Structure formats: structure tokens, C-alpha cells
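[09:14] KT: can someone run the structure on this one? pasting the chain below
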Amino acid sequence: MGRRYPTYPDKLPTAKKYALDDISRVGELKPLKVKSVPRLWDLVKATKLTLETEPDIYPMTLAVGPVTVVGNIRGVEDLLVDFYDDPESCEKLLTIVTETTLDLIEELAAVGARYIYIADPVASLMSPDFYQDQALPFHKQIYAKMEELGICGRLHMCGNTERILPYSSSSGAKIIDIDHAVDYEKAVSLVEGRCILNGNIDPVADVFSCDAGHTYQAVCNLGRQINRSDCTFMPGCELPTKTNLENLKAIGRALEDLGEA
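[09:31] RB: done, C-alpha cells below
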């Protein structure tokens, strides 16, 4: 879309220039086809390669959610102001990027994808009313497309999303992540059985900054506390790249043991 940013081997990129310096210029942008975007097309190729070479593994391919994409196009702080000042232009921008996301879903379905993970962390910064009015219609479009194509969709938003959960759980996502800031038992009552919940192990305290024994016990303790077939357990958000591999293996062992209990 025109954003410029340097990339690094050991940290996230930082934008040098955003694609839109004024939301009123949204008409200059058009939806992109996935085949014309190398980073997106790589996701399709990687999914296809995994399915061909590892028949017992079904990859859950990541796609960035529409609110986060428009935040990367406009700049998150400016975008949040735009939602108040010019909601019509924000809707146009969300429509543009959602068309590209729908194209990505279709391309992934064409190579056999069965699971897609939408990460939309910027949406978690929205108030419940703004989420319901501005983001939810686009989330519903995305998950309706997945349903049409036989794909299981998962939604991730960071932080304490308790106030948004009653709305995000109606998006059509089959699985919704909850971060460690969310009370798991309260989240169960908020979603009212509309989706599977997934989380909310603390990625730092219970995985990164501890040993494998602590990680194993944290997952087991949460699983026994919640004890529901419509709840799964994993770190509530991304792990630092230098997380000990043995701690990751401990998550798998804990889940296997919970499943056998």
C-alpha cells in the first residue's frame, strides 16, 4: 500500500513513512491481489508446501486483521483519531483492505488450507461501541468467507478484551484468543458458548522468564481450573523470539496430559 519501513533480523520493523498522511486521500488506494504482494503470496506457498510435505500437520496460517492493516497504512495513533473525525473514510479504508484479506482466504483455500488465524491487535484498542460499529462488520465478512470455504477461523486480539468479547464472539470466529490480562472464567460467561476460547497463559512470566517445569505446571493448573471441552490453553500473546525451546515443548506435554486426564 506504500508504507516504508526497514526490517531487522532480531526485532520488529518500524515505519519510516505511512502510506496515507491524510485519511481523506483514501480514494487513492485500491484493493491488492495477493499474487501481487510477495509477503502474502509467500504465506500461500508456505501453506501449500507444509500440506504437501507434512501430511499429518495442518498449518494455521496467519493473516493480519483489517484494523491492524489500516493502522499500518495510516499510523495507529492517527487512525484512532480518524475513527472519531472521519468514520466514513475509515470505513472505505477498511473495505479496501478487507477485500485483499478475502482474496488471501480464497487463495489459501485453493491450496487446501483448513485453519486461518486472524491477528487484529489494533482492534483491541477500540471501545466496545467502536469495535461493534467499525470493526465487527469486517470481521464478520472475513469469517463468513471462511465458513463458506470450510475453513476454521481463529481471532486474536491483545490485552484485556473483556469488554469486546460479547461482540467479537459473534464475529463467526470458531476460536477466540484471550490474553493473560483476561479473567478466563469471566470470559467463558461473556462468550455464552458462541466460540472456543484459547489462552491465557502469561507469555513472559509463565513461558519466557521461567523453566520448563514452571511452564508445564502453569498450563496444567489452568486446564484443571477451567476444565471445559470448549476451552484450550496456550500463551495469550506472542512469545519473545529467544524463548527456551524446552518451555515450548512443555506446553505440548501439558496439553497431552490434560487431554488424557
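[09:33] KT: thanks! The mean pLDDT is 94.
[09:34] RB: yep, looked fine to me
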